[in-house]
């Protein structure tokens, strides 16, 4: 009965997905910058192992957003990320039990327009606590790397979304300023109110 009305997860090799997860009972999944650095390390490790490409991300206190492409199984890659990070976090903070609420959420990306909207949505997540002009300075998202504000890690793929937006200034305006996609239900509603998808 729990799975009635749920859709099967799209897990096509090579497909782009907007993926997110949050803490169980909305608890924090990062308690310090050290935790965030370790999570980034795991993203890089998955890239080095050829399991996941990261094209955009934002780490918030109790959830994360990523724009990813998996050469193989997205479910396997995200399961590995979640389990390894949760095991480390629990050990680091002397706790036990689930860290994440359950399954991750994935929204398949079907065209370039949705790819750009997903990237923009991810990079605008910190608007919950900062003004638009401060977004490029937020350390725990990929926007600063796209805009040349900080050096991009080796595992962050800037070669797909970046060229679609042209110059750095065009990219900055696209993220910071109001955009028609903000009111386009068909493009962003699934990202704003995603549903759980079964494995």
Structure description:
The chain is α+β, with helices and mostly antiparallel strands and 199 residues long. It contains 7 helices and 4 strands. The chain has helices spanning 33-48, 74-92, 112-123, 143-146, 161-165, 168-176, 185-192; strands spanning 16-22, 53-59, 63-69, 105-108. A 4-stranded antiparallel sheet has the order 2-3-1-4, sandwiched between helices. A hairpin with a 3-residue loop joins strand 2 (53-59) and strand 3. The two termini are 15 Å apart.
Q: List low-confidence stretches.
A: 1-8, 188-199
Q: Please tally the helical runs, counting DSSP H or I stretches of 4 or more residues.
A: 7
Number of strands: 4
Order of helices and strands: EHEEHEHHHHH
Cα(first) to Cα(last) distance is 15 Å
> Beta-sheet strand percentage?
5-15%
Strand order of the largest sheet: 2-3-1-4
Outline type: globular
| Biggest sheet statistics | 4 strands, antiparallel
Mean pLDDT: 87
The Cα radius of gyration reads 16 Å
The portion of residues assigned to helices is: 25-40%
């Amino acid at each position: 009965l729990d799975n009635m009305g749920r859709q099967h997860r799209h897990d096509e090799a090579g497909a782009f997905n907007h993926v997110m997860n949050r803490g169980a009972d909305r608890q924090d999944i990062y308690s310090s910058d050290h935790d965030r650095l370790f999570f980034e390390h795991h993203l890089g490790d998955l890239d080095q192992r050829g399991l996941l490409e990261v094209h955009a991300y934002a780490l918030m206190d109790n959830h994360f957003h990523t724009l990813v492409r998996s050469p193989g199984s997205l479910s396997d890659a995200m399961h590995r990320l979640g389990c390894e990070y949760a095991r480390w976090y629990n050990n680091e903070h002397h706790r036990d039990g689930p860290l994440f609420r359950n399954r991750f959420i994935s929204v398949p990306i079907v065209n370039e327009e949705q790819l750009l909207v997903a990237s923009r949505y991810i990079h605008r997540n910190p608007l919950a606590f900062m003004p638009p002009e401060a977004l490029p300075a937020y350390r725990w998202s990929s926007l600063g790397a796209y805009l040349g504000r900080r050096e991009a890690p080796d595992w962050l793929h800037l070669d797909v979304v970046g060229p679609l937006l042209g110059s750095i200034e065009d990219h900055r305006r696209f993220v910071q300023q109001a955009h028609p996609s903000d009111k386009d239900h068909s493009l962003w509603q699934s990202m704003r109110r995603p549903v759980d998808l079964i494995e």
